[in-house]
């Protein structure tokens, strides 16, 4: 038996087992070995879905999916239904008067469910069961144990001076295990104070049962026997360790053989805990090695030299309408320093909404478009600026015209709906439409110094002559491949240089997450807002506060200000479909507001299904003040700049993530007028109100992101599948010290041997995870 062998080579499987393993993504023996238990039990669940008896109270383990809010047919009472599944089958669950439950249990969560079996045989359901989301690797109590039944947000969470503590403190304290027996002291010190007693750990004496993420067809018992068989084949003794010996020694990490054995067959709770730490370290370390390799490759490429960049940026700031903030100046200096290096920059600029990332982009772009290509008497180096939507691309095109109109250069715009160029030969001081083929020609011969666009910018046909600087705005809206295409898709004429790359984002990403996911990028942070911004007053407005909120809005409108009303959906749900979520729709809300609340004001409508022409018209009218109220879906989330808007009403606020709500709120923090944000929850559950209260209290986007990370877990927050990180790895992201250690070790390994030829097992592990990492 070899780790790379297919499972089917060694196990006789029946059809449902084959498809179950496929669903779990398990093909090889190695996959099987890396299919870790979800938790350990001293005793397993007390029942299974195929053993239910009416009237009995049961505890089940399995996945919960398809949660839908609905109304009961007769009473019209709100209810939620969903399906619970374990290895033996499915059973329906019903919650009455708890319509919000769907909003805090992510689809397909692995849960512990406790409730009473109701109904008659064949049509059983569990009535209002208690649900506990079981985080990966949790024990009944221990390493990753979730203390709260219902995820809770640390409302007073602040990033603050304490650096990596703050929100994360509680977690690290909670996650200490008893590591003494495993002699993992250096690792223990990575993950928190060691030596704390763990009562549950002491209480456990008998065997621990590994409970696996199951799928219908393969039970934990099956996995147990499968592992026994694999272990009896002496496969462990021949496994190579992906973590180099010296790294393992430094942190006293158990070797791969012992770890695999312990994680599947722990004799004591701390065996399992120690190996879980090892494997979360392994995963983060592997990702970090892959990122460090990418970075090393980047640093072997050449870039365009940009001379006197800091003089040029100074000149730009001297002529700009306002002085840069200290943070803008710092970020600009970091970028300019990168411009001075022989290899291309690879940098992420992270800054809360409204922190002024565009100005940093403009100042640094200014240095580039005022530079000559090497050994040329004429022409300039070129800049590409990519934005996620046409509205944003257009808005930035206009901003850059403002910034650069005094320069003798051409600026152009390319989107799916057409191309524009500034200055225009026919209309002085304005931009005019030009044909795509004309634009492509001018980009290719270098006449256009700055090209702004949507993803239309990365089509193959767009070829630059001297692309020296590529900027991606709201980078999380693009896939890895799109971002790469902007940098690597360019032939740059006959030149082999790669452009300097700046990625910008307003999504407040917890630091551990940024260091891992964007481990190949250097980080600049704008941690201050331009001066004079009034603080947004955020208020949760329940049904009885709605009228008062409208009064505030009316007062603001009367003073000449404008307002956003954001709704969770575009259209009304089909009333015939019982299960449709009863959330406010932008279309209906716009109509209702016009008819019942604000007949005297002009109301515009914007959502994803509005045609581009119409969208542009609405945005133009809102920007010019012809429209005073813009009713929209979350398409207004990113970047839109309407300094005159001071009111933001968010309907169904509980349906948005905290980071997203924070971004929406940022839309009205663009001027010195005091802004108001009203959160209008559609349903008023305990959980949603707790989450929303965090927003009332904190206006620090990073603190909110970390609070969300703490409360809901990174997987839920950022879409685990999107990142290709396992649940175990995601849990590790809550642990700054582990991340730091894994990162330093990875960088050292790559520095010594960029090809990691000396570590074939590590290279193999990278291959396994990087396919997933890049499919994001
Ligand atoms: P974001 O980081 O969200 O992209 P923007 O670049 O759109 O933020 O800037 C938000 C607003 O702040 C814009 O109206 C911009 O003109 C203004 N702004 C940017 N920098 C400064 C500054 N240093 N002083 C005053 N206002 C500024
Ligand atoms: Mg922006």
Give a structural overview.
By secondary structure, the protein is of the alpha/beta class. The chain has 29 helices and 23 strands. It has a nine-stranded mixed beta sheet, sandwiched between helices. Strand 3 (78-86) and strand 4 form a beta hairpin. Helix 22 (658-666) packs antiparallel against helix 24. The longest helix has 30 residues, at 269-298. The radius of gyration is 28 Å and the shape is globular. 49% of the residues are buried. Mean pLDDT is 81; it is low at 138-206, 575-581 and 714-721. Bound molecules: adenosine-5'-diphosphate and magnesium ion. Residues 322, 324-325, 328, 351, 353-359, 506, 530, 639, 641, 643, 670 line the site of adenosine-5'-diphosphate.
Name a few traits of the molecule.
776 residues; 9-stranded mixed beta sheet; 6-stranded parallel beta sheet; binds adenosine-5'-diphosphate; 29 helices; binds magnesium ion; globular; 38% helix; alpha/beta
């Amino acid at each position: 038996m070899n780790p790379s062998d297919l499972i089917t080579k060694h196990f006789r499987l029946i059809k449902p087992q084959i498809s179950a393993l496929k669903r779990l993504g398990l093909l090889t023996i190695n996959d099987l070995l890396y299919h870790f238990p979800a938790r350990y039990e001293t005793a397993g669940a007390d029942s299974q879905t195929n053993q239910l008896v009416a009237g009995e109270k049961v505890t089940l383990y399995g996945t919960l999916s398809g949660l839908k809010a609905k109304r009961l047919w007769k009473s019209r009472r709100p209810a939620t239904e969903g399906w619970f599944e374990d290895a033996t089958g499915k059973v329906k669950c019903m919650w009455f008067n708890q319509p919000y439950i769907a909003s805090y249990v992510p689809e397909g969560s692995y849960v512990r469910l406790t409730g009473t079996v109701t109904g008659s045989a064949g049509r059983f359901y569990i009535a209002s069961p208690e649900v506990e989301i079981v985080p990966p690797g949790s024990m009944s109590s221990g390493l990753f144990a979730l203390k709260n039944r219902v995820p809770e947000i640390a409302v007073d969470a602040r990033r603050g001076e304490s650096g990596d503590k703050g929100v994360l403190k509680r977690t690290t304290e909670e996650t200490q295990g008893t590591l003494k027996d495993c002699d993992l002291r250096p690792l223990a010190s990575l993950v928190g104070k060691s030596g704390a007693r763990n009562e549950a750990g002491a209480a456990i004496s008998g065997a621990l049962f590994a409970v696996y993420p199951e799928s219908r067809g393969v039970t934990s018992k099956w996995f147990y026997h499968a592992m026994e068989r694999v272990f009896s084949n002496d496969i462990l003794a021949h496994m190579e360790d992906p973590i180099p010996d010296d790294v393992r020694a430094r942190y006293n990490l158990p070797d791969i053989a012992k770890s695999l054995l312990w994680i599947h067959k722990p004799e004591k709770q701390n065996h399992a805990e120690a190996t879980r730490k090892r494997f979360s370290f392994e995963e983060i370390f592997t990702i970090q090695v892959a990122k460090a390799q990418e970075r090393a490759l980047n640093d072997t490429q050449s870039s365009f030299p940009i001379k006197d960049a800091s003089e040029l940026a100074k000149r730009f700031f001297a002529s700009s309408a306002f002085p840069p903030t200290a943070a803008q100046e710092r970020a600009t200096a970091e970028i300019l320093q990168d411009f001075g290096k022989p290899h291309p920059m690879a940098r992420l600029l992270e800054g809360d909404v409204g922190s002024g990332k565009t100005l940093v982009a403009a100042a640094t772009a200014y240095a580039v478009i005022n530079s000559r290509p090497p050994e040329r008497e004429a022409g300039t180096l070129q800049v590409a600026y990519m934005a996620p939507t046409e509205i944003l691309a257009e808005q930035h095109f206009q901003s850059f015209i403002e910034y650069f109109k005094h320069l003798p250069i051409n600026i152009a715009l390319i989107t799916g709906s057409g191309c524009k160029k500034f200055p225009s030969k026919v209309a002085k001081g304005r931009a005019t439409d030009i044909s795509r083929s004309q634009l492509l020609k001018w980009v290719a011969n270098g006449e256009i110094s700055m090209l702004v666009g949507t993803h239309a910018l990365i089509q193959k046909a767009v070829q630059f002559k001297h692309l020296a600087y590529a900027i991606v705005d709201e980078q999380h809206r693009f896939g890895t491949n799109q971002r790469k295409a902007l940098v690597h898709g360019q032939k740059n004429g006959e030149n082999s240089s790669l452009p300097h790359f700046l990625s910008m984002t307003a999504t407040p990403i917890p630091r551990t997450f940024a260091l891992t996911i964007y481990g190949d990028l250097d980080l600049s942070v704008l941690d201050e807002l331009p001066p004079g911004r009034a603080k947004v007053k955020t208020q949760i407005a329940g049904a009885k506060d709605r009228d008062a909120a409208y009064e505030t809005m009316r007062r603001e409108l009367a003073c000449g200000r404008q307002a956003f009303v954001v709704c969770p959906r575009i259209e009304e749900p089909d009333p015939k479909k019982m299960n449709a979520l009863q959330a406010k729709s932008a279309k209906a809300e716009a109509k209702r507001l016009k008819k019942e609340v604000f007949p005297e004001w002009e109301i515009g409508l914007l959502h994803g299904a509005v045609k581009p022409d119409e969208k542009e018209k609405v945005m133009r009218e809102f920007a010019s003040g012809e429209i005073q109220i813009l009713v929209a879906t979350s398409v207004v989330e990113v970047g839109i700049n309407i300094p005159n808007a001071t009111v933001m009403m968010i309907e169904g606020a509980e349906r948005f993530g905290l980071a997203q709500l924070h971004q929406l709120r940022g839309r009205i923090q663009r001027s010195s007028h005091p802004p108001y944000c009203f959160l209008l929850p559609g349903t008023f559950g305990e959980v949603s109100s707790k989450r929303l209260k965090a927003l009332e209290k904190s206006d620090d986007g990073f603190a909110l992101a970390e609070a969300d990370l703490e409360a809901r877990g990174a997987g839920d927050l950022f879409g685990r599948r999107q990142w290709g990180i396992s649940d175990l790895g995601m849990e590790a992201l809550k642990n700054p010290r582990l991340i730091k250690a894994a990162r330093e070790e990875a960088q050292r390994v790559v520095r010594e041997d960029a090809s990691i030829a000396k570590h074939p097992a590590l290279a193999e592990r990278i291959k396994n995870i990087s396919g997933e990492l890049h499919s994001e």
